[in-house]
Write a structure and sequence with these properties.
single chain, 75 residues, mainly beta, five-stranded antiparallel β-sheet, globular
Length: 75
């Protein structure tokens, strides 16, 4: 979501796949999607903490450089 608009829906009109790996306190994902003849790589990871039903991701690396250093919290 960007503001109140959907920026990219996965898989939407893309085909492809992605794998996520979660370890003791790290997470990562990597995948490749295709639309027509264009490929889009998606990857990233970082550290996470889980406290009850509260999950916090700290992004250490990401294909989208604006995500690096950010924190996302989820219930």
């Amino acid at each position: 979501m960007v503001g109140d608009s959907l920026a990219w829906e996965i898989p939407g009109t893309y085909t492809g796949s992605e794998i996520s790996i979660i370890a003791k306190n790290h997470f990562l994902w990597v995948g490749r999607y295709k639309k027509d003849t264009t490929f889009v790589d998606n990857w990233g990871g970082g550290i996470y903490t889980l406290d009850g039903n509260r999950l916090e991701h700290r992004y250490l690396w990401c294909v989208n450089q604006s995500m690096v250093g950010t924190i996302r919290r989820m219930l």
